[in-house]
Specification:
The radius of gyration is 23 Å and the shape is elongated. By secondary structure, it is mainly β. Helix 1 links the parallel strand 2 and strand 3. Strands 1-2-3-5-7-8-9-10-11-13-15-16-17 form a 13-stranded parallel beta sheet, with no helix packed on it. A two-stranded parallel sheet has the order 4-6. It has 3 helices and 17 strands. InterPro entries: LRR_dom_sf. This is LRR domain containing protein.
């Protein structure tokens, strides 16, 4: 399939006035741009269409052309170096971009006025270096997941912040396998409950020492950090007292856990530290709320935690569930 002309035969109500879902999958020769009016379209998925033309026409306002579009998925469209040119309808709630290897830019204007956007997930777009600055205007965003972006260098978290924070409704933030990414968190993420950082080797200190943790991240409950070998120390500057679970995996160069970071963690129930061979010791005082401690494959730390004989055994002896391997 090489061409599909939507425009021929359009009527006043649009070419397909009742169309709610449109999937174009596995059509590598297909050249297509959408018709100018799809009033009922709710979900659009484009997969493996390498010669995809700009999806959305630039000649008419998006809100009037696609007033019902909520879900937009683009995957494995390697013929595209730019996506979303010409803007997007403000009705969008989810955008997922996956495996577009030649993608270098996301149109800045496309993310402006996305007042309903709740989910933005971008996976395996190796040539994308920057996220658009307009992203900070997406104040309804609840889930931001960025995975396997080998050349991503910056996330524009700070610019565009307003009184209630850059992303006042953001609940989960995942940054995974972005080895060139340099990022520190915004000063205020009031709704963030889950934060996962994996294989971000140039990770800056996550939390600025100037921040008041409980006011900046009052809802954070789960913090996962893994594969960040560029860091000798993490969690500098303290942690919010709302934290219930901390997971630290595969940080081979990690030597210390900041003592101050574990103070005042009155809600912490679980601490997992796995495969951190250079970690020398635990903080001298762990929260009394801690009920589960998992320490596995930590070459230097494990001997210090052996029952009765280890130097750090007194630190952990009152924790109800301990798994030390």
């Amino acid at each position: 399939l090489e061409e599909w002309s939507f425009t021929e035969g359009e009527v006043e109500g649009g070419a397909f006035p009742c169309l709610k879902k449109l999937y174009l999958t596995g059509c590598p020769r297909l050249k297509v741009s959408l018709p100018g009016y799809l009033p009922s379209l709710r979900e659009l998925k484009i997969d493996k269409c390498a010669q995809l033309l700009p999806l959305l026409p630039m000649t008419q306002p998006m809100d009037s052309s696609f007033p019902s579009l909520e879900i937009f998925i683009v995957s494995h469209c390697d013929g595209q170096d730019s996506l979303l040119t010409g803007g997007l309808p403000s009705s969008l709630k989810q955008i997922i971009i996956l495996g577009c290897k030649n993608l270098t830019t996301l149109d800045e204007e496309a993310f402006q006025n996305l007042t309903s956007l709740e989910k933005l997930h971008i996976f395996s777009c190796d040539n994308l270096r920057y996220l658009p600055r307009g992203l900070t205007t997406c104040l309804s965003l609840k889930s931001l997941i960025i995975v396997e972006m080998s050349n991503l260098e910056e996330c524009f978290f700070i610019e565009g912040e307003i009184e209630e924070g850059a992303f006042p409704r953001l609940e989960e933030l995942h940054l995974k396998v972005c080895p060139r990414l340099e990022v520190s968190l915004p000063h205020n993420l009031p709704s963030l409950t889950r934060l996962e950082i994996e294989e971000c080797l140039k990770l800056l200190p996550l939390f600025s020492r100037a921040q008041q943790m409980d006011s900046a991240f009052p809802s954070l409950e789960i913090l996962t950090i893994s594969g960040c070998d560029g860091q000798h120390s993490i969690l500098e500057g303290g942690l919010p007292s709302s934290l219930k679970q901390i997971e630290i995996y595969n940080c081979g160069n990690l030597t210390t856990l900041d003592e101050e970071a574990f103070q005042h963690l009155t809600s912490l129930g679980r601490l997992d530290i796995i495969s951190c061979d250079s970690l020398q010791c635990l903080p001298r005082a762990l929260p009394t709320s801690l009920s589960t401690l998992n320490i596995r494959f930590c070459e230097l730390l494990t001997p210090r935690l052996q029952r009765e004989t280890g130097e750090d055994w007194p630190i952990i002896e009152n924790i109800p569930i301990k798994r030390i391997w």
